[in-house]
Design a protein that fits this description.
Layout: H1 3-9, H2 13-36, H3 41-61, H4 67-89, H5 92-114, E1 120-127, E2 130-137
Antiparallel strand pairs: 1-2
Helix pairs in contact: 2-3, 2-5, 3-4, 4-5
């Protein structure tokens, strides 16, 4: 089991959301380095695709009409637009602006994750047909 698998399996829901933000920040940092190295759009596009995937996942994480969910969706949409502009113009300051928007949200989810015990039980169990992956979560933030 690698470090990421271990972190995912031993985390609670808020920790998983924090990990998505961490991945987003890492992709932004990677983009900044590639722009500094004067890489072309061909090399940057896969990173931007990954960033959009992460932002899309974060946007659907909070379903419903909650104030938190709606506010975060607006922020993620705005960050998507900011990063699209950053990738188009290769402007380092714009990448940094996007990162500075995401960092406090990331830190907030880290703090939330510290306040709860891990709530995901995942593992292989033996069923009639052989090994079955079972998964249970006490908290569904998509409600």
């Amino acid at each position: 089991m690698n470090d990421l698998e271990n972190r995912v399996l031993s985390s609670n829901t808020w920790g998983l959301v924090a990990m998505l933000h961490e991945g987003l920040i890492e992709r932004i940092d990677e983009s900044i380095e590639m722009v500094k190295e004067e890489k072309g759009h061909e090399e940057l596009n896969p990173i931007f695709d990954n960033i959009r995937d992460i932002l899309s996942e974060l946007s659907i994480t909070f379903k419903g009409d909650t104030e938190l969910g709606l506010s975060l969706k607006e922020i993620y949409l705005y960050v998507t637009k900011v990063l699209a502009d950053a990738f188009r113009t290769k402007d380092l300051a714009t990448f940094v602006d996007a990162k500075n928007i995401i960092k406090p949200i990331h830190e907030a989810f880290i703090e939330l994750s510290k306040k709860e015990e891990p709530d995901i039980v995942s593992g292989l169990t033996y069923g009639r047909g052989g090994l079955v992956n079972s998964e249970k979560s006490k908290l569904d933030i998509r409600k």
